[in-house]
Each structure stands twice: as structure tokens, then as C-alpha cells.
Design goal:
Elements lengths: L6 H4 L2 H5 L6 H16 L3 H4 L3 E9 L8 E8 L2 E4 L5 E6 L4 E8 L2 E9 L3 E8 L3 E8 L1
Antiparallel strand pairs: 1-2, 1-8, 2-3, 3-4, 4-5, 5-6, 6-7, 7-8
Length: 137
């Protein structure tokens, strides 16, 4: 997609980026395609919809371990099931999940894979990290 051959020898990077390859129309079309791809949820991703119980384990003994949270997935989008925590993220059609959990000023980012009834992955926060497992409720 990016062709940077010759930039170092020509010395004028700005001229390269002002070529017709980056015309306003081309940029607008690419942005619309990216937005459309992020909004459209494949039917297969909706196959993971429902309530999930997630067990969180930490690899650091100084961090809490064994916490359980409930999240919901609706049309491939991860949603909170608890007023104490905000969950956001998405599930791709192959079951790849990316999620962010927020509680007050604490934030953890996780990723992994879901099957029809279970899932697993890793997560990390500012000071802690670990693994998670999930079961469909």
C-alpha cells in the first residue's frame, strides 16, 4: 500500500504525500471504507452474542487474582453487564475478541479467542497482567 521508494534520495517527503495517490477523494473513500468495516458486524460475529462469565487471573502476586466479571456481547459488540465496570470492545467473525474493562480510574485491555461456548486470552493493565477464561452463560 505504501511505496516509500525514493523518498530518501529525493529529500522532499512532503511532495511525495501531495501526489495524486493521496488526493482528497482517495483519502475520503479509504476513510469511508474503514468506517464501514468497523460498523458492519459480520453475521458470524453475532454468533457469539449473549452473556459470558469471565474469570480473570493475574501473573503478579501483588495484584488481585480470581476475579469474575459478567459481560454481554450484542451484534459482536462487547457491553457491560455490571454498573461497577464498563466493558467495551468487539468480536470478529472468527471469534477474535478485543476488550477494554474500566472501573473508576483502573483500566485493563484484553484480547483472545472465543469459541461457541468458551474462550481464553491475555490482558494487561498499568501495573498488572495475566490471563482470562470465559464461559457462555
Amino acid at each position: 500500500m505504501w511505496d516509500f521508494v525514493g523518498i530518501g534520495t529525493k529529500g522532499n517527503v512532503m511532495n511525495y504525500f501531495s501526489k495524486s495517490y493521496f488526493s482528497k477523494t482517495t483519502v475520503a473513500i479509504r476513510i469511508l471504507m474503514l468506517v464501514g468495516a468497523s460498523i458492519a458486524t459480520p453475521a458470524a460475529a453475532a454468533g457469539f452474542d449473549g452473556q459470558w462469565n469471565v474469570q480473570i487471573a493475574s501473573t503478579n502476586v501483588a495484584c488481585p487474582n480470581g476475579t469474575s466479571v459478567s459481560i454481554g456481547i450484542n451484534n459482536g459488540k462487547v457491553e457491560s453487564s455490571n454498573a461497577m465496570m464498563t466493558a467495551s470492545g468487539h468480536v470478529a467473525d472468527a471469534g477474535i475478541i478485543n476488550v477494554t474493562l474500566t472501573s473508576g480510574i483502573k483500566r485493563a485491555v484484553g484480547s483472545g479467542h472465543l469459541s461457541a461456548t468458551a474462550g481464553s486470552g491475555t490482558w494487561h493493565g498499568a501495573l498488572c497482567s495475566g490471563t482470562w477464561t470465559a464461559q457462555r452463560i
